[in-house]
Amino acid sequence: MLNIPRVALYARFSSDNQRSESIDAQIRAMNQFCKQQHWQIVSTYTDEARSATTDNRPQFQQMIADSGKGVFDIVLVHKLDRFSRDRYDSAIYKKRLKKNHVRLCSVLERMDDSPESIMMESVLEGMAEYYSKNLGREVMKGMNETALQCKHTGGCTPLGFDLDENRKLVINPHEAEAVKLIFEMYADGYGYSKIIDVLNHRGYKTKKGQDFGKNSLYEILGNEKYTGTYVFNRASSKACDGKRNNHSSKDCSRTIRIENGCPQIISKELFEKVQRLREANRRNAGRYHSKEFYLLSGKVICGICGKKMQGDLRFSGRNKNRLATYRCNTRRTICANKELNKDYLDAYLVTLLGEKLLNANALKKGCHRCKSAYSAVQSVLCEESRCITGTISSGARKSEKYYKCH
Q1: Residue 183 exposed, middle or buried by CB count within 10 Å (0-12, 13-18, 19+)
Q2: Is 5 exposed, middle or buried (0-12, 13-18, 19+ CB in 10 A)?
Q3: DSSP 8-state assignment for residue 168
Q4: Cα(167)–Cα(328) distance, integer angstroms
Q5: Of 102, 117, 159, 186, which is least surrounded by CB within 10 A?
Q6: Could you please report the per-residue DSSP string of 48-85?
């Protein structure tokens, strides 16, 4: 009986100059290819606006997990760079597919198991990674030129500003009043909670039309553009996992800063006073916060409003008994969800982690996965080294033979 290969299609597009139609074109080409090869398509996985320089792609991870269930024999992509543009990730996940007896195939790059194909595949992966890095450099070059003209470089405009026809910042009078209120109240010693209450009571919203939260205030209070100084490229670069910490800054020499490059909403004196207060509050954080460790702060989601819950400590009653809880980050006037006892919830999670993750079998599996990942990278590097060495030797022999003949 003829075994028809079962195929899983994987399509992806990143957010740089591509649209969702790109996925349609990829899937159309893969469908046509499967029809020619008489392969059976059993599932399709798509990641929209996801970069291949990271493995933080939900559908990609689901496909890798499903490969171990025996539901398909081949993963088909339109081009190999749809699978990954990072050589390390590519080696790791190809090894996992191989372990699960699943092949990776491409519509445009026809590869087999020969040494030449292995070398060619490594070259293509290197070119894909180079393309991604070079594209990022060229995009950054263009954004620097835009920033030097004091134009908006993309993303959400800061609260208090709009854009004119030339993409330059202009003041939004209504939002500018909210910005002034935030800076003045913080300079007068008010905390985030009080400022948020006043803003929401007066009907002010964030640029996205949502209620104010502590993170939005943090960004506003540190934005130098409100003093009339245009600033670009301040935030630190993305880490190796693709995440960026916007609270961390780059070296000043790499930041573009242009005085009077945008309209001024607050005075420089007020901005500098606020920065001194923030720095003082950061140094004296222990004075305002308890030395309580909240294991699940920001990880528990409110079942009513969907916002994250945070730790809260108070001493209540005649005897000032300690009460540590997780409470909804939304103000009580908006969300009436009850608090959760921190001690009970943390203890339950620790017990659950001990049962599920910290037992001998789980630790053994974790060690095995680390070892497999290391072996995958080692095997790919060794194979590439052998192929390159063989190619160099073959070229040397041909050159020697050529010179002898001539």
Answers
A1: buried
A2: middle
A3: B
A4: 38
A5: 117
A6: ES--TTSS--HHHHHHHHHHTTTS-SEEEESSHHHH-S
Token readout for 213 is 């939260």
39 token code pair: 């392969």
Count Cβ neighbours within 10 Å for each residue of 213-252 and write b for 16 or more, e otherwise: beebbeebbbbbbbbbbbbbbbeeeeeeeeeeeeeeeeee
Average pLDDT value over all residues in the chain: 81
Strongest mean pLDDT among 28-32, 107-111, 208-212: 28-32
- Contacts of residue 246, defined as CB under 8 A and 6 or more positions apart, other chains included, come to 219, 235, 236
> Would you state the structure tokens that stand for residue 4, as one six-digit string?
């028809």
287: pLDDT confidence band, cut at 50, 70 and 90?
very low
What's the rounded mean pLDDT across residues 98-110?
A: 87
Question: Is 131 within 8 Å of 85 (Cβ atoms)?
Answer: yes
* pLDDT exceeds 50 at position 281: yes
Positive/negative CA dihedral, 376, 377, 382, 385: positive
Q: What is the mean pLDDT of residues 106-133?
A: 70
| Gap between the Cα atoms of 394 and 261, Å rounded | 61
